[in-house]
């Protein structure tokens, strides 16, 4: 789990390699949990939502995590022997999200990307 999360941060701008299922799912789960905890703590500390200076910091952190998540999605697609452009399937309402989830759950294949 820790190794997968470290690889997530070490490969934040790597769009050309592959990522195993664990290297995709652990960072997604950990980032989601950390995001919920962070929002809860900020709401508890300030008594309201994220505003002003905290808001700017939250946008910067969210952009960095978005970039890392985008790269791990592309690498995961490479691991199942699909082009990174398959990420666009998630823009198809409802069905695209389900199909992308299925793609992320598929086992690894011998990849032409490595």
What does this structure look like?
By secondary structure, this protein is mainly α. It has one domain. α1 crosses α2 and α2 runs antiparallel to α3. The longest helix is centred in the middle third of the chain and has 28 residues. The model has no long low-confidence stretch (mean pLDDT about 85).
List the helices and strands and how they pair.
Layout: H1 2-10, H2 21-46, H3 52-79, H4 95-105
Keywords, separated by commas or semicolons:
114 residues, mainly alpha
Number of strands: 0
Low-confidence stretches: none
| Rg, nearest Å | 16 Å
Our count of helices gives 4
Q: Shape, please?
A: globular
What is the share of helical residues? 55-70%
| Structural class category | mainly alpha
Question: How would you spell out the order of helices and strands?
Answer: HHHH
Tally of discrete structural domains: 1
- Give the N-terminus to C-terminus distance in angstroms: 23 Å
Mean pLDDT: 87
Q: How would a textbook summarize the main sheet?
A: none
Pfam family, one: DUF805
Keywords: Membrane, Transmembrane, Transmembrane helix
Organism: Pediococcus claussenii (strain ATCC BAA-344 / DSM 14800 / JCM 18046 / KCTC 3811 / LMG 21948 / P06)
Protein name: Inner membrane protein yhaI
